[in-house]
Specification:
membrane, 11 helices, 2 strands, single chain, Lysozyme, 226 residues, globular, 2 domains, mainly alpha
């Protein structure tokens, strides 16, 4: 899968950036590198010196002074790094957040993990911040003008950042474009049982036979990858 917005990276750094970004995602077990690309595009447009006008937020993923200090940096140090160099503190911070909150299952959750961790894996109706708060004033995400910014509106912002250029379906997909677990979750229970019973009936496997469940899992994954 090619990286979205890779053309926005300076040509002389593009190859090194892609190699490093893919390595970061492999190290952190982020299942689609474009989730991280989307995050950085939404936060900074890949401008390593990007600085919020009304906070200390700086760099590719808009490090606050407090979050930068957690991983041994200052925002001034981060602002001096190019897009490749900044992937080092990006990896350190994401590693810290994943250890705290768990592995993101999609691009939306990766964005929540950085933008507002308290909203991580919360329902769409969960309120991040409300009118009168510094975060509300800084982010301008209250699309329905009800005085609250919800998880749904945060997701909407991420999609709006990407939509003019790319289809946003990748935010719910692994790099291969498939997610077997999500597929299975969407199948009615009776159909899953029908598949299981049919498999053991036609192959002669016993539920107690060693290796039968492993064989079934391999077969099921193979079916859904076609």
């Amino acid at each position: 899968m090619s990286l979205i917005f890779i053309d926005k990276i300076p040509a002389n750094l593009r190859t090194e950036f892609e190699k490093k970004l893919r390595a970061v995602c492999t190290n952190l077990k982020i299942r689609n590198p474009n989730w991280l690309m989307a995050l950085m595009w939404a936060e900074s447009r890949f401008i390593p010196t990007a600085k919020a006008p009304d906070s200390s937020a700086t760099g590719l993923i808009q490090f606050l002074e407090s979050t930068a200090s957690e991983i041994g940096y200052s925002t001034a140090q981060i602002a001096k790094m190019n897009v490749v160099e900044q992937l080092v503190p990006v990896e350190k911070y994401l590693s810290l957040q994943i250890k705290r909150y768990g592995m993101p299952d999609n691009g939306y959750e990766l964005y929540e993990l950085v933008h507002y961790p308290a909203a991580y894996k919360k329902a769409n109706s969960f309120v991040l911040y409300s009118k009168g708060s510094a975060a509300y004033n800084a982010n301008k995400l209250d699309y329905d003008k009800d005085g609250n910014v919800t998880v749904f509106e945060l997701k909407t912002f991420l999609e709006k950042s990407i939509n003019p250029y790319y289809d946003t379906s990748f935010l719910n997909q692994t790099e291969s474009g498939q997610n077997v677990n999500q597929f299975i979750q969407g199948v009615p229970n009776f159909l899953l049982w029908l598949v299981v019973i049919s498999f053991f009936f036609f192959t002669g496997f016993s539920l107690l036979k060693p290796g039968s469940w492993k064989a079934f899992r391999i077969m099921l994954v193979g079916m859904f990858k076609r």
